[in-house]
């Protein structure tokens, strides 16, 4: 568990669902626009992978 990466995406296989932290040592954050990013909806964790447990 990485106490520097708090995350509430419990559907992700790397999420610690109890403590709400990422378990990876590092993550990659990307943006969803080729233009200048202007709000949080245009950013995202691209290290996300769907957990089979929450299907
Ligand atoms: S990989 Fe990204 S979405 Fe998944 S738990 Fe870590 S920070 Fe959250």
What can you see in these coordinates?
The protein has strands spanning 2-6, 15-16, 21-22, 29-31, 43-45. A hairpin with a 4-residue loop joins strand 2 and strand 3 (21-22). It has a 3-stranded antiparallel β-sheet, with no helix packed on it. The chain has one domain (2-50). It has no helices and 5 strands. It is mainly beta and 55 residues long. Iron/sulfur cluster binds at residues 5, 7, 9, 12, 14-15, 22, 24, 27, 45, 47-48. Residues 5, 7, 9, 12, 14-15, 22, 24, 27, 45, 47-48 line the site of iron/sulfur cluster (SF4).
Topology:
Blueprint: E1 2-6, E2 15-16, E3 21-22, E4 29-31, E5 43-45
Antiparallel strand pairs: 1-3, 2-3, 4-5
The chain binds iron/sulfur cluster (SF4).
Iron/sulfur cluster (SF4) binds at residues 5, 7, 9, 12, 14-15, 22, 24, 27, 45, 47-48.
Structural features:
single chain, 55 residues, mainly beta, three-stranded antiparallel beta sheet, two-stranded antiparallel ribbon, 0% helix, elongated, binds iron/sulfur cluster
Short note summarizing the structure:
With 55 residues, this protein is an all-beta fold.
Number of domains: 1
| Largest sheet features | 3 strands, antiparallel
- Overall mean confidence score, pLDDT: 93
Helix/strand/pairing class, anyone?
mainly beta
Please report the distance between the alpha carbons of the first and last residues: 22 Å
Strand fraction: 25-35%
Spatial shape? elongated
Order of helices and strands: EEEEE
Global Rg = 12 Å
Q: How many DSSP H or I helices?
A: 0
Give unreliable regions as ranges: none
Number of strands: 5
Q: Which ions, cofactors or small ligands are bound in this entry?
A: iron/sulfur cluster
Strand order of the largest sheet: 1-3-2
- Percent of residues in helices: under 10%
């Amino acid at each position: 568990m990485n106490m520097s990466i708090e995350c509430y995406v419990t559907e992700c296989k790397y999420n610690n669902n109890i403590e709400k932290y990422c378990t990876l040592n590092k993550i990659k954050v990307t943006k969803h626009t080729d233009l200048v990013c202007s709000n949080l909806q245009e950013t995202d964790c691209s290290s996300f992978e769907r957990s089979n447990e929450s299907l």
